[in-house]
Amino acid sequence: MGTRTAVGSFSGDPGRRASGREVLRLLAATSRPLAWATAVWAAAAAVAPAGVVVALGVVVGAVPAAAEHGLGSPDGHRLVVGLVVATVVYAFSLVLDPVGSAIGIAARTRITGALQGRLLRAVSQPVGVAHLEDADVLDRLARAEGRLTGMFPGDAPVTWAGSVATQASGWLACGVVALYQWWVGLVLLVMWVVVRRLMLRTVVVLATEHRGQTTAMRRAGYFAALGTRAAAAKEIRVFGLDGFVADRYGAEYGAALDSAVGGMRRLHRRALGCVVVVAVGIVGALLVIGADAHDVGLAALATLLPMLAVTMSAGSVTFDDLTVAWTMSGLPDVEGLERDLAREAAPPGGAREPAGLPRESIRFADVYFRYPGQDDDVLAGIDLELPAGTSTAVVGVNGAGKTTLVGLLSRLRDPVSGEVLVDGTDARELDPARWQRQVAVVPQEPVHYPATAYDNVAYGALAHLADADGVHAAAAQAGFAAVVETLPDGWDTVLSPELPGGVDLSGGQWQRLALARALFATRHGARVLVLDEPTAALDVRGEAEFYARFLEITAGLTTVVISHRFSTVRRADTICVLDGGRITERGSHDELVALGGTYAHMYEVQAARFRDGPPGRRDAGRPRRRAGGRR
């Protein structure tokens, strides 16, 4: 297991209540001064209420004697001292609230940011992406993210400190009451402990039950996002799905809410019972002390009555604990993801330097692959050689395994059996991160980074972000430079309509940008270029420009082209037909057409479409079929 950049260490038990030590350790890992400030604040907040009450009791008790003997008498001096102490302590207690708020803001910023970074690092540890397709991992990730963005674990230290302060005040109050009636103080203390135990047990149960609602909440979140994102808004409205999406959100959220509401009702019933117990205890104590008021004395009575009021805060301590429990409940998921995903971070081997590879070839040797939880192989005995510096096109029907092949090539996944050999070395023996830097991919749907046009291209080789000449050259080669000239701020234009001053690009423009990003990567060491439907979003002119530059773009690179468009693949040195998880045909365009097999049939179907026009015009009775659509 790799070394974690921990922000505290927490048990993976979802039902266990976070202890004060853990809360302080969470804060201390980000800022020791803040941890000390929180501890000191908690101590001060605990003492201040009792100090005010005791000082006021002294003042009240000294008033009659001071009035009789004058302020110059010892009783008068006691009154003045009591007033000064009470005023100072009260003023001090008033300062505690804004100080606590300041500590809370600082703690929230540091802890939430640190935990979010910790979660991102955990998810990015594995070499591949299989964990991001695992339902259990996604549930745990959703719980952790929900807590980090919704409940703010950074609030836990000050909330916990407030709970400790109130609890300590209650202990002090019980102690003061016990000085006058020991058994009354003892009864209040026992009552308090029982109430806290009952409430905290309910909190633990609710925290555990909430974890079972994560899948429903994740589904609800999906429909909520679907209904509020511009990308889906057009299709949802065109097909009249807005009501359906809202109803599905309501159904999924309602399923999770019903369980949560049931749990909260149980908590409220138990809380109401605890309040009744506390009220009975307080009233009983008042009756006992009131009956002995003539023996206790005015000063003591003035102290005891407020102290009894302080003990009523026992219930609020419990709800502070509830807040801490909820805000901290995402931490076991963060720690569990760190621990479990770290096991996938460094597979066996993976130490050899892949720079400059391949020099000879990449070879798939009897490769089998199936996705977790599935019974059928997606790839079954693939034998395929990609000579270094040449281009290979892979064609096949939807679901044939073309994208899976690319995932194995870039080590986003590993074969179930067989090997992917790079110059004769199993790719699993190469440093995985460095090998992935050797592969530049142009996906069908490139990532739209909310950054400038320049950064979006330069992210292809982040270590060379300052290479402006390389960025401009890659953009020119990909045909993206002309797009930049039309942007309002040129290279500094932010490519996100959700940000101030930002704009969006068309599908074809994003595809040109993705090609520029990959070409920038090849300028800084990447030797393998993967083009996944590189012209799918381009218009006819853009496609023609791409064909004209194909040999220039792929010169000296080991290139893999995945496309349904035969005008693209025919320019490759070798064309392979992937069918049923196997390579069934291999050769040049002319050789495969002459073979008269699957490739020849697919080519003829597509050629006939362009030669004779759309099928609908030739036969209105037939459904229109898009032979060159996306996989």
TrEMBL record:
<feature type="domain" description="ABC transporter">
    <location>
        <begin position="362"/>
        <end position="605"/>
    </location>
</feature>
<feature type="region of interest" description="Disordered">
    <location>
        <begin position="610"/>
        <end position="631"/>
    </location>
</feature>
<keyword id="KW-0472">Membrane</keyword>
<keyword id="KW-1133">Transmembrane helix</keyword>
<keyword id="KW-0813">Transport</keyword>
<dbReference type="Pfam" id="PF00005">
    <property type="entry name" value="ABC_tran"/>
</dbReference>
<keyword id="KW-0812">Transmembrane</keyword>
<dbReference type="InterPro" id="IPR039421">
    <property type="entry name" value="Type_1_exporter"/>
</dbReference>
<dbReference type="GO" id="GO:0034040">
    <property type="term" value="F:ATPase-coupled lipid transmembrane transporter activity"/>
</dbReference>
<keyword id="KW-1003">Cell membrane</keyword>
<dbReference type="InterPro" id="IPR003593">
    <property type="entry name" value="AAA+_ATPase"/>
</dbReference>
<feature type="transmembrane region" description="Helical">
    <location>
        <begin position="79"/>
        <end position="96"/>
    </location>
</feature>
<dbReference type="GO" id="GO:0005886">
    <property type="term" value="C:plasma membrane"/>
</dbReference>
<feature type="transmembrane region" description="Helical">
    <location>
        <begin position="297"/>
        <end position="319"/>
    </location>
</feature>
<feature type="transmembrane region" description="Helical">
    <location>
        <begin position="170"/>
        <end position="195"/>
    </location>
</feature>
<dbReference type="GO" id="GO:0016887">
    <property type="term" value="F:ATP hydrolysis activity"/>
</dbReference>
<dbReference type="InterPro" id="IPR036640">
    <property type="entry name" value="ABC1_TM_sf"/>
</dbReference>
<protein>
    <submittedName>
        <fullName>Xenobiotic-transporting ATPase</fullName>
        <ecNumber>3.6.3.44</ecNumber>
    </submittedName>
</protein>
<dbReference type="GO" id="GO:0005524">
    <property type="term" value="F:ATP binding"/>
</dbReference>
<feature type="compositionally biased region" description="Basic and acidic residues">
    <location>
        <begin position="610"/>
        <end position="622"/>
    </location>
</feature>
<keyword id="KW-0067">ATP-binding</keyword>
<feature type="transmembrane region" description="Helical">
    <location>
        <begin position="34"/>
        <end position="67"/>
    </location>
</feature>
<keyword id="KW-0547">Nucleotide-binding</keyword>
<feature type="transmembrane region" description="Helical">
    <location>
        <begin position="271"/>
        <end position="291"/>
    </location>
</feature>
<dbReference type="InterPro" id="IPR027417">
    <property type="entry name" value="P-loop_NTPase"/>
</dbReference>
<keyword id="KW-0378">Hydrolase</keyword>
<dbReference type="InterPro" id="IPR017871">
    <property type="entry name" value="ABC_transporter-like_CS"/>
</dbReference>
<dbReference type="InterPro" id="IPR003439">
    <property type="entry name" value="ABC_transporter-like_ATP-bd"/>
</dbReference>
